[in-house]
Amino acid sequence: MAYTLYIGNKRYSSWSLRGWLLARATNAPFDEKVVSLNANEQKGVYKEFSPSGLVPCLVDGDTVVWDTMSIAEYLAERHPGLWPPDAKARAWARSICAEMHSGFRSLRNEMAMCIHERVDVRPWSDGLARDIARVTVIWNETLARFGPKVGAGGLLFGPFGAADAFYGPVAFRFRTYGVEPEGASGEYLRTLLAHPYMQEWERAALAETERVEADEPRIIYKDKIRA
Description:
It is a single chain. It contains 10 helices and 4 strands. It folds into 2 domains: 3-78, 3-Layer(aba) Sandwich (Glutaredoxin); 87-207, Up-down Bundle (Glutathione S-transferase Yfyf (Class Pi), Chain A, domain 2). By secondary structure, the protein is of the alpha+beta class. The chain is globular, with a radius of gyration of 17 Å. Helix 6 crosses helix 8 (184-193). Strand 1, helix 1 (14-25) and strand 2 form a beta-alpha-beta unit. The termini are far apart. It has helices at 14-25, 37-43, 68-78, 87-102, 105-110, 126-145, 162-176, 184-193, 196-207, 217-220; strands at residues 3-7, 30-34, 57-60, 63-66.
């Protein structure tokens, strides 16, 4: 039986993207259920399938898994390849995923994911500049330590895995707001954006018809956007 994955609008829902990438990376079949972000704001419809009332939410028969960290571990127990096989690399991968999961508040608050937009919100706040710098350090150091050792693929640990899924939304954010890291991290950003899973999500996102004004950068950041 296939999994069922509940997600929000693909143009805006960064957490949904992370869960979807995790599921997609397993190569296991899953049924995708896109639920309106606007409807949830009005009626709380996510509570019908998600105990937290949030997306993504993975359903496997009578097992319900919510929160992307839990989804990552649940899927990794059943499908090899989400985490690196080497113990040191695996510990590092889990650490950078946990850091992304629990931190980077300025990045989330000041660079909302919106796949169809290209805007400039500089000058960046000090907090946002620190978050961008920290992501760049994570990517550079991960690639230097583990990228070349794990095989082909050009991603953080070689083949597409959980760490790439966790940083997928950051890649779309960086492109939307014109963040262009130099060196290895810049190459990684371009490689990740060109990956077939990311391209598949982007095509579906651009085909979405629902608009969520609360997530539109030209509305959120209208006083900062440069012409």
